[in-house]
Amino acid sequence: MAAPRGASARRDVFATVLSSGLAIGAQFVAMAVLGRVLGPAEFGSVAVATAIAALVQTILYMGLPEVEIQLHELSRRLHSTLWWVNVGVGLGLGVIVASSASAISGFYGEPDLASALMLVAFAPVLLGTHVQSRVALIRLGRLRALAWCEVSAGVVAATVGVVLGLAGAGYWSVVAIPVTQALVVSVAVIAVAGWRPGRPGRLGDARDVLANGARMFGVQTLRNSGRLMLVPAVATALPSHAVGLLDRAQQFATVPVTSVLSQLSRVAVPRLARDSGAELSRRWLRVHLAVTAGSAVMFLLLAVLADPVVMLVLGNGWNEAVPLLQILALASLARASALSSDWVLAASGRYAVLLRFNVIAQPLVLAFGVLGLFGGVRGVAIGTCAGAWIATVVQLAVTARIVGTSQWTLWRDTAIAILGIGAPAAGCAALVSSQVDGVLPTLGAALAAPIVIACALVLGIAPLREYAMSKVGRQAGGRSSI
Questions:
Q1: Helices 143-166 and 131-139, interaxial angle, to 10°?
Q2: Residue ranges per structural domain of the chain
Q3: What is the mean pLDDT of residues 275-293?
């Protein structure tokens, strides 16, 4: 008998989070090794190239996967047409990056940047071939297979970067990671999906899908450019050392959003799309509370443990990145809290609303970061954080009005998630870490303490214990019926 929808969705969420967590672990291992082999200045010299590699990936997808997974029917002809579109865009982006490499290198005054960009130009060409195979896996519900393809690519890419770094390849070890990841994920997804394109149809037949994809593409490009273009925007005004510190701190702070939370849209958007009216409002609030609570715990812990985390992963030469990581972790909490808004608006087909909001909000967030240059690299981080929170508050308020959700309920749940769940966990970790010496003991004790206290509260307080037992009993009953 097929598993119930709720049980299947929970397994998909678990597989996505687990595989993304493994990919993050591989990235952190790579950063730990490369952070000791390369200095901030070397990272800063090619930070623009890695930012461009991430940005062209967003452009390449064109918002199509999010639109296609909601279609009731996707014909083979239309699917093939969209494959040819993605391949054409990938080739075009590769040519643009390669042809502009020398000009970009000259603009930033970094000679190594030109050769780095020539390698990065291969990434969109490779990725363009796998986008529609990715869509095929999602539409078939094979999210776990897709997740493991992605984690395999992340592990292989991190391994290549580490091997090159230890071999003395310098900045090439950093640039090789996104290109290797693009190659491996493309080959793996195409092989696992087993889908092959046919002859393309007329572009006119794909007009509606392309139009909605363009709106979603605009949202994703604006949202990601606010983050990815921060380093290129300030690189001309800061020394390479400061750019390297900002780049590494930003990657630390944003990896959980891009590698874990954003991937949950594969599960959340199709599920939210099945609801409407009051039921959609209630389900969105539940999703928002869960995502914000989990994000609050994750990013507030990262903020209070930034010192031992940086020491463990990057080493002694990166102490100046600690305050930057603390500030940018709070900015990432804001971005994570807004994700559920993106999902519910996409699920209800309100792509135009998302686009209009981001056309205004994301350039303002970037502008806040650039204006922070008056305070140096730390001012850039503070400006980015302030802009991210302003944008998130406005977006959540607008979404609540559109979906028909009570503003009081929305902000009450948000406060519970951040102040009632995330802040106590972070405070407990900060208190424990102040009493322990050594990097690994500090991290271990600080991360274990909130878990132990939470378990003690659940076991010691009768209402919490009864609630937990009822949830366990319900899950057991669900499994026994499968």
A1: 140
A2: 8-228
A3: 85
Query: CB-based burial of residue 197 (10 Å sphere; 0-12 exposed, 13-18 middle, 19+ buried)?
Result: middle
Q: Residue 193 contacts by C-beta under 8 Å, 6 or more apart in sequence?
A: 133, 134, 136, 137, 142
| Mean pLDDT, the chain, whole residue set | 79
| 385 three-state secondary structure | helix
Share of the chain above pLDDT 70, in %: 83
Dist CA 454 CA 431 (whole Å): 15
Q: How far does Cα 23 stand from its chain's mean position? A: 12
**Cα 113 to Cα 100: distance, rounded to the nearest angstrom:** 11
Q: Which two tokens stand for residue 99?
A: 């042809």
CA end-to-end distance (rounded Å), the chain: 6
pLDDT of residue 481: 36
Please name which of 336, 57, 345 lies closest in space to residue 221, comparing C-alpha atoms.
57
For residue 43, which of 312, 322, 318 has the smallest C-alpha distance?
Answer: 318
Read off the pLDDT of each residue in 59-76 and give the average, rounded to a whole number: 79
The DSSP secondary-structure symbol of 196 reads -
For the segment 296-317, what is each residue's pLDDT rounded down to a tens digit? 888 998 898 888 888 887 777 7
Query: Model confidence over 217-251: pLDDT tens digits?
Result: 777 666 666 566 677 777 777 777 788 788 888 87
Nearby residues of 18 by Cβ (< 8 Å), 6 or more positions away: 147
